[in-house]
Amino acid sequence: MSSKSRQLFVEPEDNGHAAAFESNHPASPRPESPDPFDPATLHLGADYAEGLGVRRVISTVPVRKPNKSEWFQVRPGQEWRLQTAVLEVEAGVDRAVYLVAKHLWPDLSGEIAPALVLTCTNRGNDLFLWRVKLPGPDGRSNTWTESALRIAQAAETKWCRMVSDTSNGHYTHFEPAAELPDPTWPPELTFHQILKIAFRDKFIEAADHAILRQLRGAS
To answer: How far is Cα 217 from Cα 219, in angstroms, rounded to an integer?
Structure first.
């Protein structure tokens, strides 16, 4: 190809058009990088264990009544409660509650008492069993038992805080003024498993159990 016929690339004249284009179409601003110290990104929620890839193992379930300073709920449903007979033994300032095998009930009729065992949790997701006394064989009740059962029923649908009213001989309860999140129940535990954990060291299934020998002065 001759030099005459060769096409030469010539840079087109600007004539100010590029500058005008840039002024009419300014470059998009770069998005700001997220602040690594923003409290919202560092907040540790109640479900933090799930985010860390760990699972809470429940190896202890206390048997007690709700503390006067804690908010608690009762898990509704007959499958989460047990009406049975228990043996209560003074242990220092506390009472130890023993679950008693049914075949021993006739021999311990003067020492055991009917009770309703309820599955409960508090705002810290601490699982516990609440032993509520029931009227004896004679059917006689008292204001403490009646008020505890009323509060237990209320706690099936809302958070409650139970306090002893010693002046009037009954329990009273409070409900939160603000809406609180629903309780989180451990999905991996059945009521059967909860009972087994709670009473593994406090189950009487033989007449020669150490606590029975102690009560009878045989040890």
So the answer is: 6
Percent of the chain with pLDDT over 90: 63
185: Cβ–Cβ under 8 A, 6 or more apart, which residues? 75, 121
Task: Say how many domains are in the chain.
Answer: 1
Contact 99, 205 (CB under 8 A): no
Residue 51 in any domain: the answer is no
β-pair partners for 118 = 81, 130
Q: Domain span at residue 156?
A: 72-215
Task: Report the pLDDT value the prediction gives residue 158, as an integer from 0 to 100.
Answer: 97
Kindly give the pairing relationship between strand 94-100 and strand 203-204.
parallel
pLDDT value for 218 = 74
pTM of the predicted protein model = 0.73
Q: Are 212 and 107 in contact (CB under 8 A)?
A: no
**Residue 117 forms part of a structural domain:** yes
Average pLDDT, the chain: 85
- Give the model's pLDDT for residue 190: 96
The CA distance from 132 to 65, in Å, is 8
Query: Has residue 5 been placed in a domain?
Result: no
In this prediction, residue 91 carries a pLDDT of 67
H helix or E strand, kind and range, residue 163: strand 161-165
